[in-house]
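ligand=adenosine-5'-triphosphate
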Amino acid sequence: MKSDNEKVYRKSVKKISQSCAIYTFDKIIGKSKNFVSVIEYAKKISDSTSTVLITGESGTGKEIFAQAIHNLSSRRGKIFIAVNCGAIPSNLIESELLGYEEGAFTGAKKGGNAGKFELAHGGTIFLDEIGEMSLETQVRLLRVIEEGVVSRVGGSKQIPVDVRIIAATNKDLQEEVKKGSFRKDLFYRLNVLPLWLPPLRDRKEDIPILIDYYMTKVSKKLNKNKFKIDSTVMNKFMEYDWPGNIRELENVVELIVNTEKIPDYILKLHKTFVVGNNKVAEGSMNFESMKLEDVEKNHIIKVLKSFRGNISLAAKAMGIGRNTLYRKMEKYHIECSETEQ
Ligand SMILES: Nc1ncnc2c1ncn2[C@@H]1O[C@H](COP(=O)(O)OP(=O)(O)OP(=O)(O)O)[C@@H](O)[C@H]1O
Ligand SMILES: [Mg+2]
């Protein structure tokens, strides 16, 4: 039964792993200053065998950068293998990466099987979602990086491999190291060439360009009209935080082309501004005045009115003494007559 399950898993693992790189730097969109400097840096580190660690929030383009780096390197004619470490069950990942010998486990293929590292020989391996890798597999990976050899599961032969590693994660690996869920030594081995991709909200000038690009692409694909976006709506797009980054933007554009309308959560967005360390939404600021004294004065008038000007009851309700209430009425020039009706 276990081996049947494993067979099913192994088939799906083939789908999870992918072996071609289609993206090149000229297809990566973005003109903002910080993004252009990220592209320049990524180009510079492309043609090297040193390990790259790409970090950035979900949907910031980690995978397309990995492909573009491979395609600009001298390995471009060779294989690019992407392995999603987060999607492969932990009991299978080692044999997927390192291969296995015949008889290594129930259901192992006759003659054994080459792992992704062997298959990627001469090319690039993209270890996506590296932050999800178990500590045991991290040890095996560290050995491959340090020694440049793999030994298949259940075997002892050491097979030399020449593979460039590009790893990616949306986790803060340094934080994971502190928590003990990621090995410090592996982190340093991977983080030789760090590449951090900024979130879309930090490169807002690129939002209109990306919207235009995806509007053309999606409307062509769906054979529908482009939806015209006026400047008020574009401002809303610029104010929006885009937690899902470019992937979210792509989906929002597809939704707009299909429904011919802008999603409400973006249209009804309230401009935010910073007060101290907090972001405050403009819509939540419907006060006549923000001064505490004005709020106190209005509150006293309201309470006095609800007790028809009875000072003792009003003071009791507000949890203060009568004398304090008199003092405050004097300070705010509140006349008893105006609270008696
Ligand atoms: N600069 C860009 N120009 C054009 N398209 C982009 C750009 N960056 C990302 N995309 C598009 O956004 C989508 C998400 O990109 P990608 O899969 O590389 O993100 P990711 O960082 O790997 O996300 P996750 O962490 O969720 O796996 C893809 O469809 C990709 O084509
Ligand atoms: Mg990805």
